[in-house]
Design a protein that fits this description.
By secondary structure, this protein is an all-alpha fold. 66% of the residues lie in helices and 1% in strands. Keywords: Repeat, Transferase, Ubl conjugation pathway.
Length: 677
């Protein structure tokens, strides 16, 4: 039946359409049991005032039955202490059924779940049938003769028992008609046919989905359902959930053309670059140390090293109980999935046209980032992308504003959506909208372009259309902080296009504007600007331009002034990453030594909680020793905390990248040699 497996999610919350009811404990007092039944019955009766988009007749009927039972229970309550054992068993079964009934009513009246309940109408009706039969069975064996009741109440209970046995819970005619209409719509999308708006509106009207916000609530709920770690049984639901999300996305963008979308604000996470993305720039980290091939299912062993699952399993099955890379004994052979690295590998494969095996154990938190799980959703999203592209060109100003928001929302979801939007031709129009005098329109346009720039075809299209100049203009003159930080993030992704780093760096305003954002921007803006500069430094020709813009002093101030908490730690790490890249060249090291950075770097080496931050500091100090060693090495040698910090880092070698480990050893070697001399 519904909800048989996985009734609770990873956080202990009840899963949708699952019924984790529990029997009352043995030895519970009759009075307590009856009180609990009365409380549950009151909760169920409160659903009389709720709106049920579907299952209206069935909901009303079961609430009526339990309302009658409530009168019976309230009369029993005064003499509950005298209940016989057989009555307590019957009441325990009723308690279990009441719990499940409350869960079911809660789900079918849940905000955002209307469309899914409609598609599951036969199963839900079946669950109502099971519950009413459970009530009938409990009443059939209830020893009424042993309970002190008035004649009218006893007669009422007997009548209710007969009604419960005869009651038939079936689909409402309206539910059947709406469900049939929805199936036709989904079938049309699967075949690449755009359904008529009249048919769509009839289904939405029946469910009470009457606004853009209603649509968004449904999409949010369905997306959350898709995000759970499901069992194999639940995975069969993914195509249905994906189809419904595609359909609702189409409705949100096409059907509700002028609605309450202005009230929708997007979260700051959309325009924040992730520090882990730097790992994508070092392809060695994506290679399995055993097979020397790109990992498809990376797992981490006890020592902290990561291998491809198939390779390390063969190693272990051969009787090897040591870590292949470190030679240390594996206390346990448990393999922990490295989800963060797996996402990065998958992104790398998509962007470089590498086939990624579907057989690997990707959970759908990752596969959802690729594209829809059903042909229906694909058809709906392709049709929606074409509609939005036309609206951006030919629509009124209000329609264009809404279409830009829809593009922003769609491009946030997955790679398939971005590909559809790029193919539909939205990039040139979005670039034109960057010159809009409406701050909201400009912010939505630059944020949408940021999302599209994550797709290799999207960033190539932006460069081909000459969009770089418009994006740099937003970076320098954007009316909002959000626009500027989105522009900085977009520049980072554009720097991944082959040969683009030089073109971006050659624009006179780019690097100075990024440095200015590091000085004056929000924490998110500073972080994005630092990573954009890091991307530009992949071309050596940009190195002197970055130094000339005063980047070193700005980053050093950022490192010294940022508190060691939360988001600020990430900003410090990103700043250190850029300084480490600059310090590899002699002129970069000299620029760093002209600032008060050296003593502060040694302090941070002791105190920063970030291992990545400490590794970047080691890289900077090693470069300073090599490029300006006459003054640097004696200073570091005199500070006993430096060597202690280095040995501490070395003790964490199992969790360090091999390149970082080599730098730690090299710096120790340099300092020991100086001390010996």
């Amino acid at each position: 039946m519904i909800g048989k497996h996985n009734q609770l999610d990873l956080f202990g919350r009840r899963r949708f359409l699952s019924f984790p009811a529990v029997h009352p404990c043995e030895g519970i007092s009759p009075a307590t049991l009856v009180e609990a039944l009365i409380a549950l019955a009151h909760q169920i009766c409160h659903y009389r005032s709720k709106f049920f988009a579907t299952q209206r007749r069935n909901s009303k009927e079961i609430i009526r039955h339990i309302g009658i039972l409530l009168e019976f229970l309230e009369e029993v309550g005064d003499n509950a202490w005298a209940l016989p054992e057989s009555a307590i068993l019957c009441f325990s079964e009723l308690h279990l059924t009441f719990q499940k009934t409350r869960f079911l009513l809660e789900d079918i009246s849940r905000e955002g779940a209307r469309l899914l309940i409609l598609m599951k109408s036969p199963l839900v009706s079946g669950q109502f049938h099971v519950l009413i039969r459970a009530i009938a069975t409990a009443l059939d064996v209830l020893p009424l003769d042993s309970i002190e009741l008035g004649d009218d109440v006893e007669e009422l209970v007997n009548l209710l028992a007969r009604q419960a046995r005869r009651t038939s819970f079936r689909l409402d005619q309206g539910d059947e008609s709406a469900m049939a209409g929805l199936h036709v719509i989904l079938d049309h999308f699967e075949k690449g046919i755009t359904p008529t708006r009249g048919v769509i509106r009839r289904v939405l009207h029946y469910l009470g989905i009457s606004s853009w916000s209603d649509c968004q609530k449904e999409i949010k709920f369905l997306t959350e359902e898709m995000g759970y770690d499901c069992s194999d049984t639940d995975e069969r639901e993914l195509p249905l959930l994906s189809s419904l999300v595609g359909f609702l996305s189409y409705c949100r963008g096409v059907i509700f053309e002028s609605s309450d979308y202005q009230n929708h604000r997007l979260d700051q996470g959309e325009v924040r670059l992730n520090t882990e993305i730097l790992s994508c720039l070092n392809h060695e980290d994506l290679i399995c140390p055993i097979s020397l091939e790109l990992m498809t299912d990376p797992v981490t062993v006890y020592t902290g090293q990561t291998y491809d699952r198939s390779s390390i399993q063969k190693w272990l099955q051969a009787g090897n109980l040591i870590c292949p890379k470190t030679g240390k004994k594996l206390i346990t052979t448990d393999l922990v999935p490295n989800t963060a690295l797996r996402k990065l590998i998958h992104q790398f494969c998509i962007e470089n046209g590498i086939s990624f095996p579907r057989s690997c154990r990707l959970n759908h938190e990752i596969t959802r980032t690729i594209g829809p799980e059903s042909p229906t959703a694909m058809g709906a999203l392709k049709s929606l992308s074409r509609f939005l592209a036309r609206t951006l060109v030919f629509g009124s100003n209000e329609q264009k504003n809404k279409a830009v928001l829809e593009v922003r929302l769609l491009s946030k979801s997955n790679i398939f959506n971005r590909s559809c939007l790029v193919d539909a031709g939205v990039v040139p129009v979005l670039l034109n909208l960057l010159s809009s005098t409406d701050p909201t329109t400009q912010e939505n346009a630059i944020s949408a372009l940021l999302k599209l720039s994550k797709h290799v075809g999207g960033r190539i299209k932006i460069m081909e259309c000459g969009g770089l100049r418009s994006i740099v203009s937003v970076l320098k003159r954007g009316p909002t902080d959000e626009s500027k930080q989105a522009a900085a993030a977009a520049i980072f992704y554009l720097s991944l296009v082959k040969g683009s780093q030089r073109r971006i760096g050659e624009m006179p305003e780019t690097i100075p504007s990024l440095v200015e954002l590091i000085k004056e921007g929000t924490p998110c803006g500073k972080k994005n600007a630092a990573l954009a500069i890091f991307g530009l430094l992949l071309d050596p020709d940009n190195h002197p331009r970055v130094l000339e813009a005063g980047t070193v002093s700005t980053l050093v101030n950022t490192v010294l002034c940022s508190p060691s908490a939360g988001e600020k730690v990430e900003l410090v790490v990103d700043s250190l990453a850029v300084l480490a890249s600059l310090a590899e060249h002699a002129d970069g090291s000299i620029s760093i030594l002209k600032t008060p950075a050296l003593p502060q770097l040694t302090r941070l080496l002791r105190s920063t909680p970030s291992r990545s931050g400490r590794e970047y500091i080691v890289s900077i100090l090693l470069s300073l020793c090599i490029n300006g060693g006459r003054d640097v090495i004696p200073s570091l040698s005199r500070d006993p905390s430096v060597m202690a910090s280095l040995y501490s880092l070395l003790s964490e070698e199992t969790s360090m990248a091999s390149k970082a480990s080599r730098k730690v050893r090299s710096l120790i070697h340099v300092l020991l040699n100086f001390t010996e001399r």
